[in-house]
Amino acid sequence: MANTANVKAGTLHEMKGPIAENGKEILVSVKNVDITFGKGDNAVRAVTDASFDIYKGETFSLVGESGSGKTTIGRAVIRVNPLAAGEIDYKGIKISGKIPHSLDREVIRNVQMVFQDPAASLNERATVDYIISEGLYNFHLFENEADRVHKVETMIEEVGLLPEHLTRYPHEFSGGQRQRIGIARAMVMEPELVVADEPISALDVSIRAQVLNLMKKFQREKGLTYLFIAHDLSVVRFISDRIGVIYKGRIVEVASSDELFNFPLHPYTHSLISAIPIPDPRLEKNKVLYTYDPSIHDYSVDKPEFVNIGHDHWVYGNKKEIEEYKALREKDVPVQAITIASPEEATASVAEAAVVTEADDQFLAAPTHDTGSIWYSVLSFLLPILGIIGALIFRHFNYIRNYKACWKGAIIGLVTLAVILVIFLILLALAII
């Protein structure tokens, strides 16, 4: 790893990263990263022991369900989220933690981010011209005003907008146009790495392909590298060179796109792929969803590790699981992650599920106004006999919460009356004696 103090201003862009065993240049290396929010008893570990490399010129996608830690890692790469452990290297140079101010500026220049929400990520009070030019101003990446205008106008045209749009404000554009402005803001800095945090999830389906094609165009023309964060595997499959799967802050599988979809070895990856919608409604109706259950793993004695099982395919598991994954992969027979049941099997499965649901979840059929209001308890306490009658009526019509409220109030009311009656009889007996 190069010494950060020896990196001079403006030289990071020209430097070369270390070469991996497969002969590819490693642009970013995430090594055993832990990210924690909060302190003491309130600390929450969002990412645990995350490790992966991003090769220069590729699209590395990080996929997982909401809250799995995808964006947290992406923000750590651009030095927004601090690390609790581990390190992040850029071209072999450590960029996490405390680094010289000059290196920090070099990282900001070379690593840009395209955000998920194109409306929230743009300054509503600034014109498009200033939004795109802000990075140029901060790093003085233009010779004179004419050069700056030329760069901004060229970039706005490259993203499919017009120079006359530069005088407008973000609220005057559609969601897809705002995302193009966000892309232009990042690309005008001429970065090497772009962290794209679900850049199409907030866009209409018809616009998503346009934005993805735009990003791929920049990658071809400028040799960009993408860390693409997403949860839609149907999109990720066709734009990614390699894919990392993350579950609850831990990387569980990393492989090339074709390798991962043909051989999804980790059960969580299997479940994600099985959830991809099928365009044919008849097949989708009969599709069997695979649900991941983390309790299937027994890590009490045999501790898990993140291991390369061959074919540049990394999987998280203990020794027993790794041997099973290796044996499955060496068969070289694609794993069928999506299963289509016959119509008869699908009907039987639905009927069985309906019986179980009706038996176990009767509360779902409860009426809308079954609130169990405290006033039912108060009234039943004051009038316990009417409260018992009301409770029985509520129970008959499946108003379970109202029934419990009336019954509880009535019982407490009767007990209170009984206590008062006993005290009264005792006092009456004492008076007579």
What does it look like?
It is a single chain. The protein has 2 domains: 4-262, Rossmann fold; 371-432, no CATH class. Helix content is 43%, strand content 18%. Helix 3 (128-139) packs parallel to helix 5. The chain is built from 15 helices and 14 strands. The protein has 433 residues and is an alpha/beta fold.
List the helices and strands and how they pair.
Layout: E1 26-37, E2 44-55, E3 59-63, H1 70-77, E4 85-90, E5 93-94, H2 101-110, E6 111-114, H3 128-139, H4 145-158, H5 175-187, E7 193-197, H6 205-222, E8 225-230, H7 233-239, E9 242-247, E10 250-256, H8 257-262, H9 267-274, H10 281-286, E11 287-288, E12 305-308, E13 314-317, H11 319-330, E14 339-340, H12 343-360, H13 374-382, H14 384-396, H15 400-432
Parallel strand pairs: 3-8, 3-9, 6-7, 7-8
Antiparallel strand pairs: 1-2, 1-4, 4-5, 9-10, 10-13, 11-14, 12-13
What are the salient characteristics of this protein?
alpha/beta; Rossmann fold; 2 domains; eight-stranded mixed sheet; 14 strands
